[in-house]
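Attaching the record inline, Q. Sequence:
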Amino acid sequence: MGHKGFLYTQLDGKYGGSNTDFSYSVIIIEELARVVTGIGIPMHSDIVIPYL
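Structure, as predicted:
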């Protein structure tokens, strides 16, 4: 997911993000909720990464 720019989408492209706004992140979380259970990916992407 990180190589495709799906983790912390607000991050600049040169650091591995996709340089989009938060609404793009919400769409990814909603689509992942259809196939994956758990909170690991959204928590890592939107809560942990900004502090790194």
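The chain has one domain: 13-51. The two ends are 18 Å apart (CA to CA).

More tomorrow.
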